Amino acid sequence: MCGIFAYIGGRPVLITIIQGLHRLEYRGYDGAGVAMIKKDEEKIILAKTAGTVAALEKLLKEQYSDSILAHPESFCLGIGHTRWPTMGLPTTENTHPFISNDGNWAVVLNGIIENSTELTSFMKKEGYKFESQNDVEVIAILLEHLHKTYHLDTLSTFVLMLSKIVGAYAVCVLHSTEKKVYAARLSSPMSIGIGENELFIASDPIAFREHTEKVIHLDDHEVCVASETEHHVYKLAQNFEMSTPLTSEESAARIVRIPFEPAEYEIGDFPHYMLKEIYQQPTAVQQTFAGKIDNITSIHVSVPESLRKIVFLACGTSYYASLVGRHLIEQFAGIPVDCEYASEFIYRRCLCNKNDLVIAVSQSGETADTREALLLAKKQGAQLAGIVNVVGSQIARIAGQGMYLHAGAEIGVASTKAFSCQVCAMVLLSAFLAQNEEYSLRIQQELRRVPDGIQRILSSTSTMTAIDAIVEAVKNKKSALFLGRGVDYPLALEGALKMKEISYIHAEGYPAGEMKHGPIALVEKGMPVFFILGASKETQFTKVLNNMEEIKTRQGTIITITDAPEMKSAVNVKQNMSPSLSSDFLASPSSSPFFGSLSTPPANAVSSQLPRSSPSPTPSPSPSPSLSKIAAPTPSAPIFHSSSSHLANVDVTLDIRTPAASASMTSILSTSPSSTTLDASSSSSSIPSASTTPTSISNPPTPSLAYAALSNDPDDVDRVLHLSDYVVRVPHISEAMSPMLMVVPLQLIAYKVAVAKGLNPDRPRNLAKSVTVE
């Protein structure tokens, strides 16, 4: 993954390109360079170096002060690149842009050229010289060769070059005799920013958002020719014949607005984007459910008339969010769900058909494997949908329906707020598919509590104290295990991913029940073993006791993330367990089967005064509703659900519970823990009604909500906490919502471990933010 930025217009070209490259540095920071053309010369000026964009700026000041910097206004266009190495060492010779032997062609590319070895061998036989080990250099030389051999114009030469290369790419090219930029894409993102008498081209529109909000996202097999005053987009056929360019009307119809404001790209007072985005989660989650929560039936996902199953396609963090979605949809909507790694799905026989709903999940909407897997499902006739963050991204366009997250720009390489918002979207999707008004009401009430719960974790001094102690215990370890059951298992995977990708500690996530099937052999004295343990899960603590005893036997260090209260004998059992950890977040003993409590206790409340609740029997699951009656969105509705029109009026205050709203919950929260239904009529005057269910849907039975708050045996809870060396508590909330809270300490621990080791969390070795090539 690399960053491309090109500019043509009246601004200072070099300054504009450097600013754009800084915005794109999350995509690569092992090499940076620029190639520019002067207004009155037919010559390409090149400057590049290994290292960061700051290293490029230093090079320009030291070696080009009398040329490039002395007359910045003399340049009219240029291309720039920031590199993440995929072929060739991170050296200046392997850094983009690359120049042809005759100096007339300059190339930058994000991607990989799979037939570069064959092309390079041929070019060397023709007498051309190579100075690097990078696969992209051959493109500059190939352009020179084709231009000289066939005497073509620049555009025809560019298209002929595209027909000769095999791979995935976004590419920009300059020719010294023309004041134009040529761009094309295949399986890698490329966007055109349209300003007043100026044009921008970039791998990510955040690079030019401060200059224009108008953008056209190129599709695969499209070519753009950009000059200062106009641009033309051509579609390429399979034989690489060009269509006539899009008309001005067609081009205008392709323009979309970048939904993020420029301020979102500023790091502000935070030391790293990752930390900023962790702290943005309360607002981000609220923006995800705004516009959807009060009208769940309007979510724009049409379902096959005879739905067989749902298939989630995703990679990395998005895959783990999909696992949470599987748990919720199967539990509350009674629909079979498969979760597939997109990178593996594309190499298997696709057995999807018209009765399957295939949902691609991707923050960027450009993840190459996920996109290819979605296209494969489309060929089989499956119904498609997408859950993405970036408006207008390719997955959104291919799917044609689904949900935008509206999480805001995520610059940090390690995804944080996108995970929470994807889980929020999964909660909404489960309510939409359940088609049950009572369940939707509960979702509405509970989701509104999540932002406040996240904020309270982030604001808790005792939580941060506990996390700091854990960081000290973990930072010098070589390996760690993360364990969870049920909906906590995806959190174990996500916690392990964050730890390994930014702190470089080998970490693995497992279902807790699989410990005895191999992973237990890895545990040795002092090895950190994280248990993600929600208190609202039936038999969870009882089951996990055996796992903890096994870890203790091998002298491992047990770190528990939980929403359980602190029991009497667990207080101060060890010096490194803060006695104040539970004082911020005491769970209500009178919670309903579905709802937990986020209410703040009195200042003098202590954990030893907390009553213990009794275990609740698990009710039999209710029949799942028939999905054959789910109505598709009306043709007049926008196909891809966007709540941006509602955001202007969203109250982003974190504590959104008014006294009246709290009072209205009294009758609900007083429901017996063993109850599986809520009496909606008893609170109809105080709880806002959900949207009317479509007349084509009969009211199905209420989905089974077997999540009694703190239903575990208090003695088991006590024993678990006693066995733990470190405990971090989060506010207690229902199982459906708990991943959005439980993940926050895991994110903070990974971040702080990386910082404690002297690493930069925004610049890890892993650049899987928007993986566009293998």
Give a written overview of the molecule.
With 774 residues, the protein is of the alpha/beta class. 31% of the residues lie in helices and 18% in strands. The protein is built from 22 helices and 25 strands. The chain has an 8-stranded antiparallel sheet with strand order 3-2-4-1-10-9-11-14, sandwiched between helices. Strands 5-6-7-8-12-13 form a 6-stranded antiparallel sheet. Strands 16-15-17-18-19-24 form a 6-stranded parallel sheet, sandwiched between helices. Helix 4 crosses helix 5 (154-164) and helix 13 packs antiparallel against helix 14.
Can you lay out the helices and strands and say which pair or pack?
Blueprint: E1 3-8, H1 13-23, E2 31-38, E3 44-50, H2 53-63, E4 75-82, E5 98-99, E6 105-113, H3 116-125, H4 137-150, H5 154-164, E7 167-175, E8 181-186, E9 191-195, E10 198-202, E11 214-217, E12 222-226, E13 231-235, H6 248-254, E14 256-257, H7 273-279, H8 281-289, E15 309-314, H9 316-332, E16 337-341, H10 342-345, E17 356-362, H11 368-379, E18 383-388, H12 394-399, E19 402-404, H13 417-434, H14 437-447, H15 450-459, H16 461-474, E20 479-484, H17 488-503, E21 506-511, E22 528-533, H18 540-553, E23 557-562, E24 640-641, H19 659-664, H20 666-669, H21 714-723, E25 726-729, H22 738-756
Parallel strand pairs: 15-16, 15-17, 17-18, 18-19, 19-24, 20-21, 20-22, 22-23, 23-25
Antiparallel strand pairs: 1-4, 1-10, 2-3, 2-4, 5-6, 6-7, 7-8, 8-12, 9-10, 9-11, 11-14, 12-13
Helix pairs in contact: 3-4, 4-5, 8-13, 8-15, 9-13, 9-17, 13-14, 13-22, 15-22, 16-22, 17-22, 18-21
